[in-house]
Amino acid sequence: MPELPEVESIRVGVAAAVTDKTIFEVQVFHPRVVRRVPGGADALVEALSGQRVSATRRRGKFIWFEFADAALPWLVVHLGMSGQLLVDDVAFDNATRSYPAGRGHERARFDFLADDGSRTRLRFIDQRTFGFLALSVPARAADSRLVPQLLAHIAPDALELSLENLASRLSGSAREVKRLLLDQGVVSGIGNIYADEALYAARINPSARHLGVGRANRLAVAVRDVLSSALAAGGTSFDALYRNASGEAGYFDRSLVVYGREGQPCPTCGTVIVSVPFAGRHSHFCPRCQAR
User: Fold this and answer.
1) pLDDT given at position 99
2) In whole angstroms, what is the distance from residue 27 CA to residue 134 CA?
3) 178 is known as an active-site residue
4) Known catalytic residue: 281?
């Protein structure tokens, strides 16, 4: 599943392509991608057609579109396991008044019109169809930020929180620290990849509990640093299921130290990195550098 660096990389590309442009056509090709919209795909199409995008924002692993019409609910996008938002790199054919044929696994399509008459196409691609589109009115989250009501229960992410606030959320709990990192009600946007990498950077075992202030502060810094570095690299691409809005792969996989490196030597001490089952996933860590 795309995590914060991947979703933010997509959002940045999408924002540059569609902000201050008007949706002149919406097409939904798979009804399951439209959720929490009374009336389903037809209602989504009717609500969005003719609307001008004023901003594109993100919280955790969700992206949403705000509109110039303040009375309109916001469009919320979750990419699921394999979703992509791709700004089409093909030109509109004025002779045929159309674009070339669509891409594989295209679930929805948004065509935008700029003030100068130029057109942009945004495709929602999702091989596994676990992602979704929804409409949600704005609401105040616990941190007072205005977000879609659908996301009001989700915590701010590590790039929104101060280091002090993040550390306080990670300290003193009887729960395993990796469970805290993955809990979107504690801090949002972190998944398995960046949890493992941050815990290694902080030299903390994934199953550690009751973090004191010192270790919590160290982990907060590690989380911020890992996410920032991954974002600068465009995220992590292991296969074609993650690409940014321009269809380009991220390259943070070259910087991964423990995730996916089981059986290889730890770059710090040479101990073999292990992978153990954890909450339906696997944790990757160095048993020596990250001893309990």
Assistant:
1) 45
2) 14
3) no
4) yes
Whole-model pTM? 0.91
Give tens-digit pLDDT for 113-166: 999 999 999 999 998 889 999 999 999 998 999 999 999 999 999 999 999 999
Catalytic residue among 32, 35, 203, 281: 281
Q: Which of 11, 59, 61, 215 is catalytic?
A: 61
CA-angle at 109, arms to 108 and 113, nearest 5°? 155
Q: What is the pLDDT of residue 186?
A: 97
Assess whether 61 carries a catalytic annotation: yes
Q: Which of 3, 6, 8, 197 is catalytic?
A: 3
User: Which of these is catalytic: 2, 5, 156, 206?
Assistant: 2
